[in-house]
Amino acid sequence: MMNKIDKLWFLIPTGLLLLALFPLPYGYYQFLRIAVAVASGFIAYSSFSDGRQTWAITFGAICILFNPIIPIHLAREIWAPVDFVAAVIFLAGWKIRTRS
C-alpha cells in the first residue's frame, strides 16, 4: 500500500506533463525536465528495489528522456505526444502500485 507521499511521486509529474500540452513559456519546460527526471529516477530506483524490473526500465527510460543535464532536443510537435504518453505511464504506474 502506498502512502500519500509515494502517490505524489506519480501524480505531480502526471499533472505537470498534462499541463505541458498547453503553450507555456520555455522556463516551464525546463522545470518540467527537472521534475520529471527526478520523479522518474526515484520511481525507477524504488521499482528496482522492489523487484519490478519492467517498471524500473520504463521509468529509467523516462528519466533519460527528460534529463536536464544532457537534454534531448525534439520539436514541439514531437514533445506533445511524448508528454502525453509519459503522463499515461505515470498514471498507470500509480494505479498499479496502489493495487499492490
Account of the protein in words:
By secondary structure, this protein is mostly helical. It has 4 helices and no strands. Helix 2 runs antiparallel to helix 3 and helix 3 (53-66) runs antiparallel to helix 4 (76-99). The longest helix has 24 residues, at 26-49. It is globular and about 35 Å long. The chain starts with a helix and ends with a helix. The relative contact order is 0.19.
**Mean pLDDT across all residues, rounded?**
93
Unreliable stretches: none
Q: What does the main sheet amount to?
A: none
Beta strand %: under 5%
Structural class of the helices, strands and pairings? mainly alpha
Give the termini separation: 6 Å
- In which range does the helix fraction lie? over 70%
What global shape is seen? globular
Q: Please report the total strand number as a whole number.
A: 0
Number of helices: 4
Taken in chain order, the helices and strands follow as HHHH
- Determine Rg (CA atoms, Å): 13 Å
